[in-house]
Amino acid sequence: MPYFDHEGCSLHYETYGHGSPVLLVHGLGSSAQDWEYQIPALAAHYQVIVVDVRGHGRSDKPRERYSIPGFSADIEALLEHLQPGPVHLVGLSMGGMIGFQLAVDQPQLLKSLTIVNSAPEVKIKRFDDFKQFAKRWLLARVFSMETIGKGLGKNLFPKPEQADLRNKIARRWAQNDKRAYLASFNAIVGWGVQEKLARIVCPALIVTADHDYTPVALKQAYTRLIANAELIVIEDSRHATPLDQPEAFNRVLLRFLGDH
Q1: C-alpha 61, offset from chain centre
Q2: In this structure, what is the dihedral angle of CA atoms 42, 77, 114, 259, given to the nearest 10 degrees?
Q3: Which residues form a coiled coil (predicted)?
């Protein structure tokens, strides 16, 4: 399993296939494992790069303050290490935030940008926002990661036929380091680059589930702020679209990558 070091942190990554490079960046509390349904489909046509973000998976979990710009700097260091040239970056949730950060800071590194169930800012603007984030933070402080994983699985995959996905997410979530998870959660709250979206010059695909945590209207609003962006809604899906609707998601992603 390949690793590289950036600022004293050992980061795990893997590569598959050959061709134009596609970099997959996971979300909060996740890891490269959660791209399992995308890697084979993409590797038949592209060089696929997956990475465990600092504090996640098989990467180090340093005792320090995390930030979205810091995560983005790790990705920049990975690309400098691998030298693949400009990449198609695909980011889910927190991974989408990392993608936005990289796209506005280092646009020359991206051939295209795909954002999945994410947003260019997470600002607490209303009391309801504060209640929502406070509730999530307190739950993560009080309950074990295993308990949180079971609850998350029921929320993400509520259908009877999704029992395997529920069990899978619960097992994987239990492997999270709680301290690193909370540090990553704190990195998200208050972050934002929405005022810089005009800097994104590469083609962009915004993918949203019809039942994501945030409404489709939010994605429609920020899609209009990006010069060369399109929005696609995946039906009958929740926040973990690459897992709950892999065929529909892969079809949309492969079409977009093929066009660019």
Answers
A1: 18
A2: -60
A3: none
What single-letter DSSP state applies at residue 147?
A: H
Residue 154 burial (CB count, 10 A): 13
Q: Please give the average per-residue pLDDT across 135-139, as a whole number.
A: 71
CA 29/CA 62 separation, integer angstroms: 15
Per-residue pLDDT reduced to its tens digit, 58-69: 999 999 999 999
Which CATH code fits 3-122+187-259?
3.40.50.1820
Neighbours of 145 (CB within 10 A): 19
Residue 35 has pLDDT above 90, yes or no: yes
Q: In whole angstroms, what separates CA 134 from the centre of its chain? A: 22
Strand ordering across the sheet containing 9-16:
3-6, 9-16, 47-51, 21-25, 87-92, 110-116, 204-209, 229-234
